[in-house]
Amino acid sequence: xxxxxxxxxxxxxxxxxxxxxxxxxxxxxxRPAFVKYPMVALFLAVFLFLLIAIEMxxxxxxxxxxxxxxxxxxxxxxxAKSFNLSENKAFLKVKSWFVKTRxxxxxxxxxxxxxYDGIQELDNDLPPWxxxxxxxxxxxxxxxxxxxxxxxxxxxSEEFQVEMAEAKLAVEEYKKNAKDLIDAESVTLLTDASExxxxxxxxxxxxxxxxxxxxxxxxxxxxxxxxxxxxxxxKNIFHTIxxxxxxxxxxxxxxxxxxxxxxxxxxxxxxxxxxxxPTDAKAPEGDLYxxxxxxxxxxxxxxxxx
Length: 306
Ligand code: HEC
What we know:
Layout: H1 7-25, H2 33-36, H3 38-68, H4 71-81, H5 89-98, E1 111-116, E2 119-122, H6 128-150, H7 156-177, H8 193-206, H9 208-211, E3 227-228, H10 233-243, H11 260-272, E4 287-288, H12 292-305
Antiparallel strand pairs: 1-2, 3-4
Helix pairs in contact: 1-3, 8-11, 10-11
């Protein structure tokens, strides 16, 4: 069989199969694997080189052994080589699944009896590929009906819903583990006791020197009142801690020292100090800050009452 496929077909086909397999199995994003990973390109080059080398060696060995054969053996070899595909039984069988031709001399057996000004018609069978496809469709239809309409497998839209729900869970899981993706825009107020406790720890380690352990303020302003120089609410406070206060006032940007999740915790802790009224606290500085969200529901209720 090997001898029936000439070398100029064999080598490119084997190479194409290996190349295709590499591209299929190596995950290289939107770029071809052999571009992204130079090792793959190198491997393919070496592989091609070896393939050609092996072909050359094998044909050289064949040549040499041929000359060593006796005339009788040469004849046998020629016979073995003269393999004809169109006489091969297995091939004919496979071919008969797809095409079926009636020999010309038997055509009169299927000639229909009408004759249109000399134009006659043959009653040929439908081509086997067509019929087999038709039967395959029937079998497919039966299996499909049984699977989806009798045994109730989930439909495409149900599968879609399930996958979306799973994906949503995965995103939530990812967000939980990727706490440090937050910034001043996306930050939310933490209220869990454990998070507030973690915020307190950060505060005690980094902030008490200027804001006092109770947040009453010394070098830095009082953090327990409702007045804010740089804006209250979780977003503004997160921004102040992460980017620092006004130049020269002494409040540095903490984003280099603290992780975003820690800034979120300490900002939430600072907010939790509101109204604790520590003794000898600094006088309020800045403007009274009213939480935006606190007002909105009130407006809505008024609108509803009207
Ligand atoms: C070196 C002293 C110092 C340290 C340490 C310090 N701060 Fe400050 N902080 C200040 C000063 C001074 C201001 C006022 C900044 C301004 O007026 O622009 C301030 C302002 C703030 C404000 C804004 C207050 C407002 O009214 O808008 C917050 C919130 C704050 N600090 C939180 C923290 C937190 C949390 C830490 C610890 C991670 C911290 N600070 C550490 C000195 C400090």
